[in-house]
Amino acid sequence: MRILIFSLFIGMASVSSTIHAADQSITLNDFELWSTTYATDTIRVFPTGIPVNNSSCSGAGSNPDSYMVKTTLSPAAISRIYATLLSAKMSGKPVVIYTSGCEDNRPAILTVMIK
User: Fold this and answer.
1) CB burial class (10 A; 0-12, 13-18, 19+) of residue 92?
2) Strands 95-103 vs 67-69: parallel, antiparallel or unpaired
3) 71 Rama sector, left if φ>0, alpha if ψ -120 to 50, beta otherwise
4) Taking the C-alpha atoms of 23, 19, 113 and 80 in order, what is their torsion angle to the nearest 10 degrees?
5) Could you report the per-residue pLDDT of 10-63, keeping only the tens digit for each?
6) What distance in Å separates the CA atoms of residue 57 and residue 103, rounded to the nearest whole number?
7) Is the pLDDT of residue 85 over 80?
8) Could you give the CA distance from residue 41 to residue 104 in angstroms, rounded to a whole number?
9) 55-86 per-residue burial string, b: 16 or more CB within 10 A, e: under 16
10) What are phi and psi of 45, to 5 degrees?
11) How confident is the model at residue 112 (pLDDT cuts 50, 70, 90)?
């Protein structure tokens, strides 16, 4: 029984690390934060003073003006990311964003951290 539980734990840990693997991490010292309520709620981050690295989201309709929080994350995860970004913005602290893949032809944010 202990071996089975340990195996399940190890399996879950490996899935978790795969889900949150990031293509790149970017430190943003200053940014604009948008939260929209269109057909799909979206959160966009516009960096100030540095270009958006859009190499993984090229093609028709790509727009390297901002980063977007991945909309396929759970609502709770999206809320935590927004709360973290808003806290950093209000306190003037830099954030590190971790991106992987694309959202609406922009790099998709999976995780954020206040520095």
Assistant:
1) exposed
2) unpaired
3) alpha
4) 140
5) 333 333 333 344 578 899 999 999 887 676 778 999 998 888 866 677 665 666
6) 8
7) yes
8) 12
9) eebeeeeeeeebbbbbeebeeeebeebbebbe
10) -125, 120
11) very high
- pTM for the whole thing? 0.74
Q: How far apart are CA 7 and CA 13, in angstroms?
A: 10
Strand partners, 112: 97
Whether the CB-CB separation of 27 and 48 falls below 8 Å is answered with no
**pLDDT exceeds 80 at position 5:** no
Q: How many CA atoms does the CB half-sphere of 20 hold within 13 Å?
A: 10
CA dist 8 and 22 (Å) reads 24
Alpha carbons 105 and 98: distance in angstroms, whole number: 16
